[in-house]
Design a protein that fits this description.
homodimer; DNA-binding
Chain lengths: 182, 182
Amino acid sequence: MSMTGARRLSTAEERRGTVLRTAIKAFAARGYYGTTTTEVAKAAGISQSYLYRLFPDKEALFVAVVDHCSDRIRECHAEGAARAGGTEPAVVLAAMAGAYARLIDDRDLLLVLLHAACASAEPAIREAVRVCYAKQVEYVRAASGASDEEIRRFFGDGLLSNVLAGIDAGEVDAPWARTLLG
Amino acid sequence: MSMTGARRLSTAEERRGTVLRTAIKAFAARGYYGTTTTEVAKAAGISQSYLYRLFPDKEALFVAVVDHCSDRIRECHAEGAARAGGTEPAVVLAAMAGAYARLIDDRDLLLVLLHAACASAEPAIREAVRVCYAKQVEYVRAASGASDEEIRRFFGDGLLSNVLAGIDAGEVDAPWARTLLG
DNA sequence: CTCAAGTGTGAGTGGTCAATCACTCTATCT
DNA sequence: AGATAGAGTGATTGACCACTCACACTTGAG
């Protein structure tokens, strides 16, 4: 029970953390339905059976991953907002969008959220996605003071980026791809 | 072989058409990975085994459904453009967006496209989605004469609508939902 | 040292899914 | 009527998947 001293075994809490981090990559490829628990376990470097000791079932695991992504994206927005000293809504929003765009390098994080929206047929997942959007919208609104119209445009832009990342539009050399990538 | 006379049996071509139409509803709920061929067959009123005579495999079936949705959406855009007599880009674009918004009533059509983007890990599906976007962007560009910036905004708005439909944001009574729904 | 609590795994299990196949039924042509 | 070609199905199969369980190892406390 003690927390002192060096240990070879990780604590369950530490393991849950690494699972959350590595599962992002696994779920980003084929989403909730298309990703097996064995793949997630392998990505985390543990056995599939132990995964079921850390999380009650696949759905709870996926919801935890979604929450984790939600937090990291909000951190990213906060960082962007902090960097923009100004209080002008448009300026803050642009800084946030810039920070978000840098997240695209970390494609997987955004793709998980897209996959989560696609798995909304499961009530628990739908709820997690709604909460994620609620937090993000309210954070952006509070931090930027932007209007509804601006906020809607902000999220529409982000979503388009996500989908373009999903179909690897960056690899396509054609007018339509250049137009959408902006 | 003859085509004359009344028949109880449908032709394979007719069946393929009904499958394409009814499969939209089936795939819209859980996407490519989460929908079984049995569900698709049941929605079309045929046996699962006959589904495999009409389409070589599940992937080809899904790609055919995506192509079908792509066509119907383009028809919808065309209808909107035709209704707007004016040649002003913004006017035509608004008319198209209006026609597209009416499609949201037919939620399933749009959701299939969202699910398709999420199933882009399969090369054939990714290609179908890219072609779909290519056609739509070029059609919108040609019909409206809008700038890249306007087109990007047009698609970002549409995508946001799709995702909000996916998580049933219309049922949520909260500020964030009202903001995003506009 | 011993023992309890916690970490971790290998070997299943029941169920489901995509794909196949042998088979029947229907319609048309000669 | 008999033959032919296409429409349509029930039963099955092999692979895979979420989930379980009995068991082994590690660690720190008394």
